[in-house]
Amino acid sequence: MFGALVWMLVAGFLLALPPGGAAGAPRAGRRPARP
Does the keyword field hold Signal (predicted)? Predict the structure, then answer.
């Protein structure tokens, strides 16, 4: 439960990063959330 909330925060942080620094991050972050 709590892990899912943390993962959502991490996903939002990756989306907020600049396109150049997060070129591959969003794609890798779209994997199923696992604690």
Answer: yes
Contact 8, 35 (CB under 8 A): no
Write phi, then psi, for 20 (nearest 5 degrees): -65, -40
Q: How confident is the model at residue 14 (pLDDT cuts 50, 70, 90)?
A: confident
Q: Which residues contact 10 (CB under 8 A, 6 or more apart)?
A: 29
pLDDT band at 2 (very low <50, low <70, confident <90, very high): confident
